[in-house]
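Fold it.
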Amino acid sequence: MNAGGGPARTDGVTPVVCFSYECPVWFDDMDALGTVHHGRFPYLAERAQSALFESLGYGWTDVRDRHEDICYVVREVRVGYHAPVTTPGDVRVDLSVEHVGTTSAVWGFRCSTVDPDTGRETLHASGERVVVKVDPDTLRPRPWTDAFRALLARLRAGQPPSERTAP
C-alpha cells in the first residue's frame, strides 16, 4: 500500500484514478456489528469495474456474446481495511489500472465516503484485483487484444478513453 492508503505500484508511481463510481451500500451489506462486512469491499470494486466497462460500451451479455476482452477470471484479491462503514448509503469507489501484462491486469481500488457536513473524506478500504483474460471455450489464459491494451494504457496514464470504445 502507498502512503495514501491505495495499492502500491511496483514502478513507484502513485496510482491515477481512471474511474469513480458511487456504489450503494444496503442494510444487508452490514454484519452483526453494524459495519459493512469485510467481504463486501471487493464486491463494491467489481460493481465499479462493471460500471466502467458499461460506460465504455462493453456490455455484460451472455459470455458467448461478450466482447473477447471482457471474458476474464479473478486470480487474486488483496484488501486493506482502514475504517468501518457504519451506515448504509453511497460509498465512492475509485479505480486505477496498476499493471497490464500479456494476459492479466491489476486493478487498484479505494472505497471511501465524504462527510456531507465537514467534507472530510474517510478511506474505508483499498486493495487490488488481479484479473486474467481467458478463452471462453477453454478457460485458458489468452492475450488482451491490441485495442484493449491501448485502452488500459490510456486509463493507467489518466487519459480519458473515447466515449464508447468497444466495437
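DSSP finds two helices and five strands in the chain.
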